[in-house]
Write a structure and sequence with these properties.
Distance between the termini of chain B: 49 Å
Radius of gyration of chain A: 27 Å
Shape of chain A: globular
Oligomer: heterodimer
Strand content of chain B: 35-45%
Structural class of chain B: alpha+beta
Number of helices of chain A: 15
Distance between the termini of chain A: 27 Å
Number of domains of chain B: 1
Strand order of the largest sheet of chain B: 4-9-8-6-7-5
Radius of gyration of chain B: 23 Å
Order of helices and strands of chain A: HHHHHHHHHHHHHHHEE
Number of strands of chain B: 13
Helix content of chain B: 10-25%
Shape of chain B: globular
Strand order of the largest sheet of chain A: 1-2
């Protein structure tokens, strides 16, 4: 029997079985979810193969047009372009309508959007349109976003997000400017992600946001040093992390829409934390040039003197709002987190104002902060059931330890001894750390399962690798 | 959040699928038709000018299937021209063209659309570079210069594969010129590509 038909029959029969008292509501939901999961698994392979097929088809279409281009009149060319795109969309509609192969429906929908982009490029070629070239990608991205909205398609939304990032990176790298219009596209995509409850697109969207932030540095790289960007990115990551946390506590999860927001903000805060940790780690290296770069346009020192207090002010304000909305008193790790934050702001400010004198001390403080963060993340992970925090803590600890070993002993030891010792530390230390990480993770799962058994709705809870404990 | 790998359609009623997909087709087709109609409108304009091109670095003249065209009016020295004298990069400008002998040349440049007489035509462009000084090779050092580099959106011309060589490296004495169609706002489109005054490629409506 077709899996979809089986699922539909189950859906019809389960209420009757429940009424007969053969199973309860929870068991019925479990059966439905299990059946749906196996349907999705069977569709996954056809979906992946379909995506690969679509890419080949799109490449084939482009090659066909390229090979036969000169032999065709304009009218034939245009008819071919429009009919291929329309045909692809109509086939996708047929698959969706029949409901038998929704994955293939998505694949043909994706092919339609790819052909739409192909058509933009080829029409530009037919009519020798030579405008600002990223505009072609913008038009394509707009078409994809509209399709994602109308068809409620996550696959197409992912394509739209990637296209918008391509458009923005073209503007940044080719025209060397901070490309603010991308933010509009970003907000529209976030709205769709939350409205339609898309999970993978949420990850792609948030990753794009951080990539865009990194790309934007290129447009200002003439004027600022690497150390400047490290500090600004560290504070930006922290700001996004705090903002996500504050929005979560202010909004609550009273409705489905707010729950969607909550899930999205969870993913955002995880990526923001990762982003912050990466730049905190970079800042822990001695010899990073900061605050001394002067160009004719900007004085880096002056800008840092203004931006660091501004970031500190906004982040602190957001934390205060978050604390006010919190029920009960702060846990010890949260209080320690606030102290750590104050130490970080003070160190950055001292670094700016007394750069030469306090450089070594600031590096030392950053390293101590990293070790404190490791402990804080493990405590937070256990208290908030977040596996991601625990994994991040162990990863941060490992790379920091290894980096400091390199920094400290490279010049002090004989090189062969250095490598032998380094290898041994890596093997045994890695084994020990992984063992500890597993112990902590098991502890987390145990405490979580005891918590979920008393969960009011009776629904099971799972922890995502990069997200929060979410309702299934 | 949904974990279906984006495979499923989220319509509650499958009858909504067809109208939705038709809406997508109509919207995307409209976008493409606007692109085409916009070009067709310029190409069907009666205002035609012939512009000269300059030989440019042959390494970058022909890339793949298109010819990179460098018009005389791409580089404007502001001193001999009437109109405004100060421009910024990415600024939209209007270049007044006047016929001298066979070809049309820039006579003035403005930030705003100017009034024209019957013998003039207007072409819209975007400033891509402003040069306030240049290197003097005869007496090494920077000297004052006031010129701008402008893009008109007619700098690329797609030609059949393998046929660009004669345009890429014109023989001694060969001259590549372009007949350009202009609409009232100064938007430009290439109508004919000429080699020594003879049409090599001509754009038809369909």
């Amino acid at each position: 029997m077709n899996s979809n038909t089986f699922y539909k029959q189950l859906e019809k029969k389960l209420p009757y079985w429940q009424a007969q008292g053969w199973l309860d509501h929870y068991a019925a939901q479990e059966i439905l979810q299990d059946t749906q999961a196996s349907i999705q698994k069977s569709h996954k392979l056809s979906f992946i193969l379909g995506i690969m097929g679509v890419l080949l088809l799109a490449a084939g279409a482009i090659s066909f047009f390229a090979a036969n281009w000169q032999g065709m009149s304009k009218l034939v060319k245009l008819s071919l372009l429009f009919s291929s795109m329309t045909g692809s969309y109509l086939i996708s509609a047929r698959f969706f309508y029949q409901q038998r192969h929704p994955a293939l429906g998505q694949v043909f929908l994706l092919l339609g959007v790819l052909l739409f982009g192909n058509n933009i490029m080829l029409i530009a070629q037919i009519y020798h349109i030579d405008s600002h070239y990223p505009n072609g990608i913008l038009l394509w991205a707009i078409g994809a976003l509209t399709t994602a909205y109308i068809m409620r398609s996550e696959t197409v939304l992912i394509l739209a997000i990637l296209l918008s990032l391509l458009w923005s990176s073209m503007e940044i790298f080719a025209f060397r400017q901070i490309h603010w219009p991308w933010i509009i596209f970003c907000l529209l995509s976030v709205w769709l992600v939350i409205k339609y409850h898309f999970y993978i697109a949420a990850h792609v969207m948030i990753l794009s946001l951080f990539l865009w932030l990194l790309f934007s540095a290129y447009s200002l790289s003439y004027y600022f040093s690497g150390g400047f960007f490290v500090q600004i990115y560290l504070l930006s990551g922290l700001l996004i992390f705090t903002l996500a946390g504050t929005l979560k506590s202010v909004m609550g999860r009273s409705s489905q829409n707010r729950q969607n927001w909550h899930n999205f903000l969870n993913i955002l805060s995880c990526y923001a934390l990762l982003f912050t940790v990466i730049f905190l780690y970079i800042l822990s290296f001695p010899g990073l040039e900061t605050g001394s770069y002067k160009s004719s346009v900007f004085n880096e020192q002056r800008i840092l003197e203004l931006t660091i207090p501004a970031f500190a002010f906004v982040i602190s304000g957001l934390f205060i709002v978050q604390i006010r909305h919190k029920e009960g008193s702060l846990a010890l790790y949260q209080k320690a987190g606030i102290v750590g934050l104050l130490v970080l702001f003070s160190t950055l400010l001292l670094k700016v104002f007394f750069y030469q004198e306090l450089h070594t001390i600031s590096v030392l403080i950053i390293n101590i902060l990293i070790l404190s963060l490791v402990i804080g993340l493990i405590a937070a992970g256990l208290a908030e059931y977040k596996q991601f925090y625990i994994n991040l803590a162990f990863l941060l600890f490992t790379i920091t330890l290894f980096s400091r070993y390199f920094d400290t002993f490279w010049s002090l030891m004989n090189h062969s001894l250095f490598f032998v010792l380094g290898g041994m530390i890596l093997i045994f230390g890695g084994y020990w750390l992984e063992k500890k990480r597993r112990q902590v993770s098991e502890q987390l799962v145990l405490s979580q399962s005891s918590s979920s058994s008393s969960y009011s709705s009776g629904k099971p809870v799972y922890v995502t690798q990069l997200g929060d404990a979410s309702d299934v | 959040m949904s974990h279906s790998w984006g495979m499923h359609l989220m319509f509650k009623n499958t009858h909504s699928v067809l109208p939705a997909i038709l809406l997508v087709i109509v919207l995307q087709s409209c976008l493409l038709i606007v692109m085409i109609a916009n070009r067709q409108a310029i190409l069907s304009s009666d205002s035609l000018v012939i512009l000269e091109t300059q030989p440019i670095d042959p390494r970058s003249l022909f890339r793949g299937d298109y010819v990179r065209l460098n018009y005389h009016i791409n580089n404007l020295k502001l001193k001999p021209l009437a109109g405004d004298k100060s421009f910024k990069v990415n600024e939209l400008i209007y270049v007044v063209l006047q016929q001298k002998d066979k070809y049309w040349q820039a006579s003035a440049v403005y930030s705003e659309m100017p009034d024209l007489n019957e013998k003039q035509a207007i072409i819209q462009g975007i400033v891509i570079q402003v040069n306030n000084k240049k290197w003097d090779w005869s007496n090494p050092g920077f000297i004052k210069a006031h010129s701008i580099k402008v893009s008109y959106g007619i700098e690329n011309y797609f030609v059949p594969e393998g046929e660009g060589l004669k345009l890429e490296r014109p023989k001694e004495g060969d001259k590549v010129t372009l007949e350009i169609a202009l609409d009232k706002k100064g938007h430009a489109a290439i109508k004919t590509l000429l080699l020594n005054g003879k049409a090599q490629y001509q754009e038809s409506l369909f």
